Amino acid sequence: MSESPNNSKLETRNSNLPAVEVRDLEKRFGRFLAVDKVSFAVRAGEIFGFLGPNGAGKSTTIRMLCGILAPSGGSGSVAGLDIRTQSEQIKARIGYMSQRFSLYEDLTVEENIDFFSGIYRIPAAHKTQRKAWVLEMAGLKDLRASRTGVLSGGWKQRLALGCAVLHEPPIVFLDEPTSGVDPVSRRRFWELIYQMAQNHVTVFVTTHYMDEAEYCDRLGLIYRGRLIASGTPEELKTKWMQQAVLEVVCDRPSEAIGVLEALSGVHEAALFGQALHVVIARVAGVSPARGQDARDTDGPAGRELIAHALNEAGFPVQRLEEIAPSLEDVFLSLIESHDRQAGPQVEVKR
What we know:
By secondary structure, the protein is α/β, with parallel strands linked by helices. It folds into 2 domains: 9-238, Rossmann fold; 244-324, 2-Layer Sandwich (Alpha-Beta Plaits), CATH 3.30.70.100. Helices cover 35% and strands 26% of the residues. It has 13 helices and 14 strands. Strands 6-7-8-3-9-10 form a 6-stranded mixed beta sheet, sandwiched between helices. Helix 7 links the parallel strand 7 (171-175) and strand 8. The longest helix is centred in the middle third of the chain and has 16 residues, at 183-198. The chain starts with 8 loop residues before the first helix and ends in a 9-residue tail after the last helix.
């Protein structure tokens, strides 16, 4: 698998009809509004990523789409079926993998596959073929007689995916499927997602990993129950990121953040490894990362001011340059902007 996805995948898949569509979707728990008027559409055959921090409303949204939770407001459809009135029909047309391992650990790998074959009512003539496919896809042929509970997290993850798609659904919902597994297993799992997408399966995946978000065709960024941005990874970095991002290498960067945050015009400062990413205002009409002179491109907190402030405060600067924003830069910037404008997400006003 390539390091980052090719957006041309969007052009090669053959349906523009929405596989998933929601309008002003809401979910309340008592007076708490967990999902707040969310609207989006997912095209058939694409990998759609739902990106956000823990508690943002990702799992609640996916459970409404899968017919597990009833919406409190709004409307939506999955595979052309109404999420309010046809939830049982939806369950037969989708695959669903929750963020918590949901297979039976006391059963063997093969017994779990047999059990879910029965749940999905796979015909006997087709059952052997589908079991062989899952074992091959997950790389578990040599472990078919092993008790599921003794498998590593990566093996369990692949088995859970195989069981979720035994019945060959056209749409698959994956709720933080790689949470808690090692990077190699995460990469292998995404290779399986690509294989499904190449067979025109629609994949709706929630994640809080920024590197995984880069693998998606399109993304929806959800925060505090609200969809705050959507588009391809490249669109999010250009259309939604209007500020400049500076990478600063200086002494004791974790302590230097306070100096930067006190400067007028600094929107965000965050640690990225041994460096700092600093989001600042940009003069209108100037494009990012083109190497212009600092005096022509910087806002109120320009490069010269930042360098001077850090040096004066005892944090000598080794390097300071403008860079193209990462998805994490975009997300942090959008969250900071949202928090400035929005009140606390606690209660539904009556």
